[in-house]
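User: I'm writing a short methods note and want a consistent example. For Cysteine hydrolase, I'll paste the sequence; you return only the structure tokens, no commentary, since I'll be parsing the reply automatically.
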Amino acid sequence: MALEALDMRHAALLVIDMQNAFCHEDGTLGLSGLDTKRLSAPVKPLARLIARCQAVGIPVIWTVQEHFAIDHSRARKQLAGHTAKRKQVSALAGTWDEQILDELKPLSEVNPSYVIRKHRFGAFYETRLEMMLKMLGTQTLMVTGTTTNACVETSIREAYLRDYDVLAVRDCIAGVNEEWEQTAQKVWSHYLCQLTDSGEVLDWIEAQVAPRTLGFGHLLMQVADIKASEHFYINLLGFTVRPAKPLADGRPFTAFKQGIALTAGGPEPGRQARQIDHMAFEVNDVRALAGRLEQAEVLFVQGPHDGPYGLTIYVSDPDGNKIELYQTGAGA
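Assistant:
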């Protein structure tokens, strides 16, 4: 599936305007004659998706639409705006109408700093969302909420124009009209985003959190003269040093952002070949991976310990090559 190309560590879930005004039968849209059962249909799948994202550390960002009873900016318009087409102005600041649905409110309170107030359709328009996503390192934005043809679609377009990978989670999005919604999704899938559903996203999350290798760390070379090798790679080839602690066995360790690292312990006198000490890879759950390798009777060179980049194990592959597996941020 298309989600396999994405990295959960750079994803965020955007929950748009799941408020009483739009989803509750006593809210503005309900009082205006719209089908709030349809608009509130995403609540259950969305609650499951939000809880799972929060459990695995995917940021869940909420938007809350907020209108003012007196809006001088909108009052300048000569043609009636959308707020004039309802029984009342929706989501007035400080009212029950503005509040997030009771079914979802506890989830929104998990991290209040992720709740963003907006005053127009777009989640990005004159809000702090774009800066927040940059701070979080977000590249993939999963979009959910209400309503399909207004705030959701505007936000999808804004995200696409900012070069995010956008996922529209269909069963977690609702609109006021099924026909409009089908047309919108056809346009989205052609121009703006990938369509998916919460079940597919949950399966993707499970695959992402399973013990696995995330990427290449470095290839460690044993050298006869580490100072001479540092001079060669840094001063002559222009390599950039990657900060790291010494190796657990006390040997010096100089790592480079270009993918190799150096340590002392070159060949015996008279030998020309240089020994590759080991290859290193970042993983997402080194303890679980260690358990899997033990069960498979893989040879361990060194068990879990604090390595230069985090909790580390060393194992031997079938050909006897030493492999380092480390989990950034974890410790023994």
